[in-house]
Design brief:
By secondary structure, the protein is α/β, with parallel strands linked by helices. The chain contains 10 helices and 11 strands. The chain is globular, with a radius of gyration of 19 Å.
Length: about 325
């Protein structure tokens, strides 16, 4: 019996072999994200990069008995970290502090993401790139502009990770309904900051929530990160839940690359949905495949309330996106 189990486990893990890099692996998100990626059987080569401390994180997670090698890299070794990558996940940057919005992080994190994007363009231009660094509404356009300037932009391979908004929506509605949150599947569209986050509860079993309950629920999904920032009292923002969200989305991208069917996640991508309104990037359900983005799905039927939320999100996103694009134009 044991030999059959061992053989089956080995064959499933060896069927798909991928190199994944985590840029910012020694940070509050990076460390637990690195742990979770070590547990993914599709990851056979895990490259952990940071300005400092990555070799220590790598040594630590390397002792976990899964079928992957782990190596830590520092700035002088970034070429080695990125070469041959299938997926690059970027949680690098500074965390929020009480009173800060995600947009307040822009000036610091924009430079970090721009410089990492330049290295990705040079050493792993074909990788799927997953942006966690906030503000995602602006950092994803930054990466796009850098890739365009280097002649390697592939809109099917660039993703803003909005999965934490989905996890929060599932959790918070389950608390109200008294259900198992792992069985809830709330679609969240728009962007990944405050009023750009639009959970579509009308497309669930909870379309008839009382107005005050619905309004509080939507606000909590939009600003759930503030709960964590305040509870940590200046010591950081959402790291553990964000790491889980990042690992889930990275796992879905890997499943898509492996050709698995019906891999669908919301993500902030170069989208045709509202381009005629000047919204170049938008989060909606995306089917993932071997080429990255396979299908970008429309929003579906919305309630009048949600139509209003989407309108506000679009108006805000235009400015967020332009902010990232302008940054690269002014700071190439």
């Amino acid at each position: 019996m044991f030999s059959k189990i061992a053989t089956r486990a080995f064959s499933s893990s060896s069927a798909s072999a991928y190199k994944v890099a985590v840029l910012g692996a020694n940070g509050g998100i990076g460390q637990p994200l690195s742990l979770l990626m070590k547990l993914n059987p599709k990851v056979t080569d895990l490259a952990l990069y940071d300005l400092r401390g990555a070799p220590g994180v790598a040594a630590d997670v390397s002792h976990i008995p899964t079928n992957s090698t782990v190596k830590g890299y520092q700035p002088e070794d970034i070429e080695g970290a990125l070469t041959g990558c299938d997926v690059v996940v970027i949680p690098a940057g500074v965390p929020r502090k009480p009173g800060m919005t995600r947009d307040d992080l822009f000036n610091t994190n924009a430079s970090i993401v721009r410089d990492l994007a330049k290295n990705i363009a040079e050493y792993s231009p074909n990788a799927a790139v997953l942006i966690i660094s906030n503000p995602v509404n602006s950092t994803v356009p930054i990466v796009a502009e850098v890739f365009k300037s280097k002649g390697v932009y592939n809109p099917k391979k660039l993703f803003g990770v909005t999965t934490l908004d989905v996890l929060r929506a599932n959790r918070f509605v389950a608390e109200i309904a008294g259900t198992d949150p792992s069985k809830e599947h709330v679609t969240v569209v728009g962007g990944h900051s405050g009023i750009t986050i639009v959970p579509l509860f009308s497309q669930t079993n909870y379309k008839d929530l009382a107005t005050d309950v619905r309004d509080k629920l939507v606000h909590r999904v939009q600003f759930g990160g503030d709960e964590v920032v305040q509870a940590k009292d200046g010591a950081g923002s959402a790291t553990l839940s964000m790491a889980q969200a990042g690992a889930r989305f990275a796992g879905s991208v890997l499943n898509g690359l492996a050709g698995e069917h019906d891999v669908v996640e919301p993500s902030f991508v170069d989208s045709p949905l509202f381009k005629n309104e000047g919204v170049e990037f938008f989060s909606s359900k995306v089917t993932l495949g071997p080429e990255g983005v396979k299908t970008i799905h429309p929003l579906g039927e919305l309630s009048e309330f949600e139509e209003g939320l989407v309108k506000t999100a679009k108006e805000t996103l235009v400015g967020n996106i332009k902010k990232g694009q302008d940054f690269v134009a002014q700071n190439p």
